[in-house]
Amino acid sequence: MSAHPDERDAPxxxxxxxxxxxxxxxxxxxxxxxxxxxxxLNIYRGEIFCLLGxxxxxxxxxxxxxxxxxxxxxxxxxxDGVPMEGVPPYERPVNMMFQSYALxxxxxxxxxxxxxxxxxxxxxxxxxxxxxEMLSIVKLNGLEKRKPHQLxxxxxxxxxxxxxxxxxxxxxxxDEPLGALDKKLREHTQFELVNIQERLGVTFIVVTHDQxxxxxxxxxxxxxxxGRIVQVGTPYEIYEFPNSRFVAxxxxxxxxxxxxxxxxxxxxVTIDSHDLGGTLYVGHGVSAAPDALVWAAxxxxxxxxxxxxxxxxxxxxxxxxxxxxxxxxxxxxxxELDSGKRVRVTQPNTHRHADDRFSWDERVWxxxxxxxxxxxxx
Amino acid sequence: xxxxxYVSLGQRLISxxxxxxxxxxxxxxxxASAGLLRRAGVTGRTLVIAIPTIWxxxxxxxxxxIVLKISFAETRWLGSPPYTPLFEWVxxxxxxxxxxxxxxxxxxxxxxxVQAFLSSLKVAFISTIFCLLIGYPMAYAIAxxxxxxxxxxxxxxxxxxxxxxxxxxxAWIGLLSNQGVINQVLMSLGIxxxxxxxxxxxxxxYVGIVYSYLPFMILPLYANxxxxxxxxxxxxxxxxxxxxxxxxxxxLPLSRPGIIAGSMLVFIPAVGEFVIPRLLGGTSSLMIGRVxxxxxxxxxxxxxxxxxxxxxxxxxxxxxxxxxxxxxxxTFGAAR
Lengths: 378, 336
Ligand SMILES: Nc1ncnc2c1ncn2[C@@H]1O[C@H](COP(=O)(O)OP(=O)(O)OP(=O)(O)O)[C@@H](O)[C@H]1O
Ligand SMILES: [Mg+2]
Description:
The structure holds two protein chains of two kinds. By secondary structure, chain A is α+β, with helices and mostly antiparallel strands. Chain A starts with 20 loop residues before the first strand and ends with a strand. Chain A contains eight helices and 20 strands. By secondary structure, chain B is mainly α. Chain B has helices at residues 9-26, 28-39, 44-71, 102-109, 111-144, 147-158, 165-176, 181-188, 202-226, 230-238, 243-254, 256-272, 275-279, 288-298, 302-332; strands at 87-90, 94-97. A two-stranded antiparallel sheet of chain B has the order 1-2. The longest helix of chain B has 34 residues, at 111-144. Chain B is globular, with a radius of gyration of 26 Å. Chain B starts with 8 loop residues before the first helix and ends with a helix. Chains A and B meet through β6 and α2 of A and α10 and α11 of B. The complex binds adenosine-5'-triphosphate and magnesium ion. Magnesium ion (MG) is lined by residues 59-60, 99, 175 of chain A.
């Protein structure tokens, strides 16, 4: 589902790397309301950085401050080392692709794309050449003379993309670029975006509230909640090592077991969980006081179903299957544990004729390995 | 950015209309007659189209035809009506139709009419330009004002309609005359010793026309500008366009329908305007509306007056129709 961090280079791990965008303690208030709360972020050249978060979490506001449409109430923004205070939008090396596309309705596709280049006062021949080149990159050849109202949603989106890319910005801000597209077109365009990004070497900051989209596109994800950045990391880190219940529950599905720390060693902890009706053994240390209230988060695909009781004394519980959803590649089982807690377990469908597939109302054991759970303290 | 608790004037009007309609629709007479009509095979759609059609037929087409008919008649100096009949039964057998184009030829031959037409067009054109120059910034400011201010400002634009048009024109006499407010202020400040003659000049006439027709320019412009998506301007600025150029290349072209609607609403009645030139303008201002009035009431020459009216109508309608067709082709013709 996600690229492993060492598959791409990772400038954020390099202490000598200069961030291309530096956001320092930026806060934005509208009256008394705090829309963006003390956000600090470093974004590096060539990244696709996804801002992910629920509705109203401040993603658009943060983007608009980068584009220069809003001024931070406090804090500073640097782009390529230059402080952006007092720099109007038309002088920033940034282009934005709007959530609503904001295509100029009275101009043709060609004129829309050429608009930004005309402002630079480039010679006409060069404008024409670059527009044609960009239109072929986004596969809009043949539609040059149409007006926005004569295009489909997907075509409009590509015009908006072409319009913001043709100026060859160093930084492209995309506000829910794929929001209006259907699932198929959306997936296709996601890969196209990554292709274009790699070809042109632009830094992307993409706002989305679709976690799957963030996982597919991002080099790193910044997860926002109520104006704050709650975690920054690669899709892999965010998915496998969430730092809070909020993050674990926001990304993908998760089973959350509440409990108290009973054993707290550097290399492992055990948790007594009433949710589970037993103890959890987790193979990593936790910085929390003994007897503290903690949560163990376990992804559905890291759990195993079996008819026989697994060996060992931790990390297992028995229950009854109450729901089964066959998804083709996997099946989803909802198991009601004896403690009353309902857990979600996914199992790959490796055999076509699975005579021994689990059935409704069957009593089963749910178990997982020592490394499956992540303990979060908040 | 839209404020959910904010309801625009238009939305309020619509909901009031909806409430009235709901009462009518649920009333017994409506339901009874609707049932009758349905049985007679009359659909709601027909009715909806029929009402304005009947209205236009009764109050526009019929009067127009009457005027058209008179314009082809000859003047009968004595008698009532003061023109010859168009259709006549000769010996009770033949229907005789007598069309006289003399009135139209007369309009062309007498330079008074051509001049009056031209000067009316000029006055209307200049007034329209001034209305546009004053009205556009006002409409723009109202459209950009905060929602709470917007209604107040709109009310101020519409407010003059609550008093009589004539009263408002007379008020300008009080302002502009030699002993009027403006001259008194100027003289008491010592700026001039002698009163500046403003009344009965072209200046006063333009002031009156621009003042009276300004709301007709502002309202359609406002209706257009208010709908503009602010993110278009942001997109333009984001693409490196300075704010004023963004206005010129985005807002201005997009407000063209509003400019056209407002200009027509000012230009068309201004061409035929005769009250304001008569009350505020000088005796030299020769407007077609005034000629029309004189022909009807002073000379009692109805056929010539009707011919003037028809010619005026054609002069205005033909360019408008051509223009609209061009507009339509531009909007839809490019579709493939
Ligand atoms: N101009 C403004 N005036 C007042 N409040 C605002 C303004 N712009 C945004 N807000 C508020 O700031 C908060 C964050 O808004 P923002 O548009 O950044 O959210 P978002 O994360 O982009 O949400 P979505 O996913 O729905 O687009 C919201 O509660 C919003 O109501
Ligand atoms: Mg948003």
